[in-house]
Write a structure and sequence with these properties.
Strand content: 15-25%
Number of helices: 6
Oligomer: single chain
Strand order of the largest sheet: 3-2-1-6-4-7-5
Length: 156
């Protein structure tokens, strides 16, 4: 069985969150990260490193392949054609508890904007939507923390 695991970070603004997802993705054995929408990359348009990402990623930006693609639809369409299961991490009416989800590898996990999450368009294109139940007063976790929980759960 091919345990290939891909991450898609969509419209995440925080440089620290992006760096943290890189570091966690490295620990989880992610093979590639797609930075979509306005998610910043470790290197800016002028070829300069983004210190905030590098500091948090601790070198993971060098050990994991990554690619910037503005249009998330292009990425998900290509991956689906390659037989990759697209999984969105989002609190939605039709989401499944992340602990009950059974992935089919190869798999790509999408996380989204820190405030708005993922759009309904992205959710309709996903093969599965998973969520992390919130037991306290807050509605969601930090995107990098949520990515870590979901990523390691997918690998179990």
């Amino acid at each position: 069985m091919n345990k290939e695991f891909i991450a898609i970070i969509h419209n995440v603004r925080s440089l620290h969150n992006v760096g943290s997802v890189f570091r966690t993705a490295d620990g989880a054995g992610v093979s590639k990260i797609y930075l979509t929408g306005y998610t910043p990359s470790p290197i800016d348009e002028m070829g300069r490193i983004r210190k905030e990402i590098i500091k948090t990623a601790l070198g993971a930006e060098q050990s994991i392949k990554w690619e910037t693609v503005k249009n998330i639809s292009a990425v998900t369409k290509r991956l689906k054609k390659e037989g990759v299961q697209i999984v969105a991490l989002e609190k939605a009416k039709n989401s499944v508890d992340y602990k009950k989800f059974k992935p089919k590898f190869p798999v790509a996990l999408i996380v989204g904007n820190e405030v708005r999450g993922l759009s309904s368009t992205i959710l309709t294109r996903a093969d599965a939507i998973i969520s992390i139940p919130m037991l306290g007063k807050k509605e969601s976790l930090n995107v990098s923390v949520a990515f870590g929980i979901a990523a390691y759960s997918i690998l179990k």
